[in-house]
Design goal:
- By secondary structure, the protein is of the alpha/beta class.
- The protein has one domain (23-147): TIM Barrel, CATH 3.20.20.
- 31% of the residues lie in helices and 19% in strands.
- Strands 1, 2, 3, 4 and 5 form a 5-stranded mixed β-sheet that branches.
- Helix 1 (23-32) runs parallel beside helix 2.
- The longest helix is centred in the middle third of the chain and has 16 residues, at 95-110.
- The model has no long low-confidence stretch (mean pLDDT 90).
Length: 161
Amino acid sequence: MNRPFVHLHVHSEYSLLDGAIRCCDLARRSAQWGCPAVSITDHGALYGAIEFYSACREEGVKPVIGCELYVDPRGHTLKDRMGRNYHLLVLAENQEGYQNLVKLVSIANTDGFYYRPRVDHDLLSRYSGGLIASSACLAGEIPSLILEGAEDSSPEGHAVP
């Protein structure tokens, strides 16, 4: 039995130096491959969201709008280069999620920008409604701790009960 496959971590042409596919090509390819849905999760921005949404709707593919956020657990406004910018994949589940994702990305690019647009755990908690989060890649908090052999620690170095 073949089950439909949905790509949930895709960087488009709007993820400079990391993605190359155009939104219209992503939607067309997804339709050709029989994917019922596809996601766009560019780094720290939602520049392609409307173009992606429209292209997917034209092709009959459900658009899932998301973003790969940069998270500094110590605080998004700190500018001492001592923190780490972990990656976190965030997908909008519904309209509330989309609005919260827009808020997070906006705050990250205005208040939290320091080399990259950043959020922190407090912001993620405050604007979590309607959002689905995943560890993203090896640069996520959980994978980073595992690779460092610190499975029993939080990213801030505190032991996890």
